[in-house]
Amino acid sequence: DIQMTQSPSSLSASVGDRVTITCQASQDISNYLNWYQQKPGKAPKLLIYDASNLETGVPSRFSGSGSGTDFTFTISSLQPEDIATYYCQQYDNLPRYTFGQGTKLEIK
Amino acid sequence: QVQLQESGPGLVKPSGTLSLTCAVSGGSISSSNWWSWVRQPPGKGLEWIGEIYHSGSTNYNPSLKSRVTISVDKSKNQFSLKLSSVTAADTAVYYCARGSSVVVRAGWFDPWGQGTLVTVSS
């Protein structure tokens, strides 16, 4: 199975900061990598698909990049409403889907 | 737009069978998408359980395959999950979600239901 390793597991940043989360796959997954935001008590929400495509309606301060085994998720200017846990998810070897362990983002 | 809503018992006894249903509204379950179940133990990450296509074809997570059955009811525009021989480790929030497309390679989950907590306890 393909393993997804996210880092860091938790992160504290100030409003306005640039925030970066990384996700590493245990093998080449091309660009078959998605990012979700999960706020407390809520279902995950798709933000980025296929590594770098912004889902409709998602603010442009969110972005994604990478291919192969190394991926990056960035918030260009952290807002208070961005407090959440963020997950990466791969789908290279359909029909197997695996998620990263999550990165909990807090306001400093 | 498509909305999903999970329903089912919130408490299941150990060794029993967990049964949940996901009602799809605002769209047809016979669209060109797979329909998935994902779970999240309290305070932990997300785990894909399995998926079904409206034809009845299914795919399951190998780690749960021996205990999982997913079925579809096109007349009611819903799909269901059964997980047998449950233990406390199966306590989780269970989500249903629209998944992969069969038209293009698109393996993400969107939208999701609100989730339902199922506790396994005597």
Q: Termini of chain A, distance in Å?
A: 36 Å
Instruction: Using the alpha-carbon principal axes, give the shape of chain A.
Output: globular
Ends distance of chain B: 39 Å
| Oligomerization | heterodimer
SSE topology:
The complex is a heterodimer of chains A (108) and B (122).
Chain A: E1 4-7, E2 10-13, E3 19-25, E4 33-38, E5 45-49, E6 53-54, E7 62-67, E8 70-75, E9 84-90, E10 98-99, E11 103-107
Parallel strand pairs in A: 2-11
Antiparallel strand pairs in A: 1-3, 3-8, 4-5, 4-9, 5-6, 7-8, 9-10, 9-11
Chain B: E1 3-7, E2 11-12, E3 18-25, E4 33-40, E5 47-52, E6 58-60, E7 68-73, E8 78-83, E9 92-101, E10 116-120
Parallel strand pairs in B: 2-10
Antiparallel strand pairs in B: 1-3, 3-8, 4-5, 4-9, 5-6, 7-8, 9-10
Outline of this structure?
With 108 residues, chain A is mainly beta. Chain A contains no helices and 11 strands.
